[in-house]
Amino acid sequence: MDFNKARLLYLIVFFLYSGLSVSGQSIHVSGRVLQQNTQTPVEFANVVLFKQDSVFLKGTTTDTIGRFEFENLPTDNYVLSVSCLGFETKRILIQNLTESAQIDVYLNENVLLLGEVVI
């Protein structure tokens, strides 16, 4: 009888510990922002992570080599929005994010020509 109690206690502790270790896992999304034509990094681009229902979650800017990172994310669907002055804004849908992901974002230049200036 003592053996069965010890076995039951062991199983309960095992399942409780297993549940804690699984819930302790966190997901990271990282990547780089690059110019589409030249493949050069885009410095100080705004990178914003929204939940799929457009609720703001986190935001950051890229570093001098175009890198960004979001840590400790729950499993969910997200929208990654990347914008920078002189470039078109890009939105990327991330569905069923269950593990860490590396996402490289390529931005197209947004060239605006101004009209003639008369002085």
Automatic annotation (TrEMBL):
Residues folding into a coiled coil are none
Q: Name one Pfam family in it.
A: CarbopepD_reg_2
Q: Tell me which UniProt keywords the record has, alphabetically.
A: Carboxypeptidase, Hydrolase, Protease
- Is Protease one of the keywords? yes
Q: Which Gene3D superfamilies match?
A: Carboxypeptidase-like, regulatory domain
**GO terms for molecular function, please?**
carboxypeptidase activity
Which InterPro entries does the entry link to?
Answer: CarboxyPept-like_regulatory (IPR008969)
- Protein name in the entry: Carboxypeptidase-like regulatory domain-containing protein
Q: Which organism is it from?
A: Bacteroides cellulosilyticus
